[in-house]
Amino acid sequence: MTWIVVADTSRARVLEPSAESGALTETDVFERIHPRFGADDGGPAPAASWPWTVGPQYDAFTQTVARHLAQAHAGGRFTRLILVARGPVLRTLYAALPPGLRASVGLLAEADLIDAEAGIILSCLPGRMEHPAQPNA
């Protein structure tokens, strides 16, 4: 199973293909709550809940997304990951992933598709859902 994560600096969408049709379905959305509203995003789950720790150099939003992906991958929810984001966000999110999960990344796509419909995202990744590819950045 392949998951696609489309992200920007304040939001990350997790999409997965339907086993029947291959159409993408959004399964999770992460949103950064900006401090100017008097709150923060709550930070990552307690370290005791997961043995791998995201480095402190990453903000709470990135840590939360990376931890969710690591846990889902370890739980067998997906075997291959495609990351789609603009350059700095793409590089930061990829770097925040644990090494074992980084090895499962099939594609790093530099694109701003955070607000795109699932069908548009899928059309931007022709052939990428069926065949493993090496990450490129």
The arrangement of helices and strands along the chain is EEEHEHHEH
The best one-word shape is: globular
- Number-wise, the strands total 5
Structural class: alpha/beta
What does this 3D model show about the protein?
The protein has about 140 residues and is α/β, with parallel strands linked by helices. Helices cover about 25% and strands about 25% of the residues. It is built from 4 helices and 5 strands. The protein has helices at about 60-75, 85-95, 100, 120-125; strands at about 1-5, 10-15, 25-30, 80-85, 105-110. The radius of gyration is 14 Å and the shape is globular. It starts with a strand and ends in a 14-residue tail after the last helix.
Keywords:
137 residues, alpha/beta, five-stranded mixed β-sheet, 26% helix, disordered C terminus
Task: Give the SSE map.
Blueprint: E1 2-7, E2 11-17, E3 24-31, H1 60-74, E4 80-85, H2 87-96, H3 99-102, E5 105-110, H4 118-123
Parallel strand pairs: 1-4, 4-5
Antiparallel strand pairs: 1-2, 2-3
